[in-house]
């Protein structure tokens, strides 16, 4: 039984790989950086599992189809769409090409792989890594937060459809807040109050076991999810802007 983890060369994806190995899953680990993937594979040799690595940039749509062609004959019980990145800055000043690449990875790769899994497997779980940023209209993170709002809503809607269709595939979404990983360096965001990648990964594994449609790691983010439903968007935007400017 295999689990496929994208963005597995570091951070949350790497932590998930180790926890899944402890659970007895064989692994297909996907990322752009071959050297980092090989390091993870070597570290996983202490577990009695098969580990395959796939060096692919999933912001390129053709590579998403190529990945699925390579894994579709395996008994994949779990697909974790973790690959993604953020980009901090004022929309009037940020680079368009970088934003479009982010949308290709954060949205299109998730869309393609989720669709292909549902069409080709009759059981199992797809776990899409959204974000608590998707709960908010976030100045200075406008494109990123919008991309994660898409993932959040998309995943929950599909999961409801699958339940109504009485299918045994589930699409779960994870909405973490800040996690202390190199994601923040790529996004150019200084984060000093995030949870550890290991803690986040452990909460995700618990949620997967329970097949929770929405997995929210961390008590503070659970509170955020509760309260944002009652606060007008103009106030949420003001709060988010102040938080970003204070970092």
In short:
With 247 residues, the protein is of the alpha/beta class. The protein is 49% helix and 17% strand.
Description of the structure:
The chain has a single domain, classed as 3-Layer(aba) Sandwich (Rossmann fold). It is built from nine helices and nine strands. The chain has helices spanning 11-22, 34-43, 61-71, 96-120, 142-164, 183-187, 197-209, 219-227, 233-245, and strands at 2-6, 26-31, 51-55, 76-81, 123-129, 168-174, 179-180, 195-196, 214-215. The strands form two sheets. Strands 3-2-1-4-5-6-9 form a seven-stranded parallel sheet, with helices on both faces. Helix 6 (183-187) links the parallel strand 7 and strand 8 (195-196). The longest helix has 25 residues, at 96-120.
Number of distinct beta strands: 9
Instruction: Classify the helix fraction into a percent range.
Output: 40-55%
CATH superfamily: NAD(P)-binding Rossmann-like Domain
**What structural category do the secondary elements indicate?**
alpha/beta
Number of domains: 1
The assigned CATH architecture is 3-Layer(aba) Sandwich
Largest beta-sheet characterization:
7 strands, parallel
Q: Roughly what fraction of the amino acids lie in strands? A: 15-25%
Identify the strand order in the major beta sheet.
Answer: 3-2-1-4-5-6-9
Terminal Cα span:
43 Å
Order of helices and strands: EHEHEHEHEHEEHEHEHH
CATH topology term: Rossmann fold
Mean pLDDT: 90
Count of helices? 9
Which shape, going by the Cα principal axes? globular
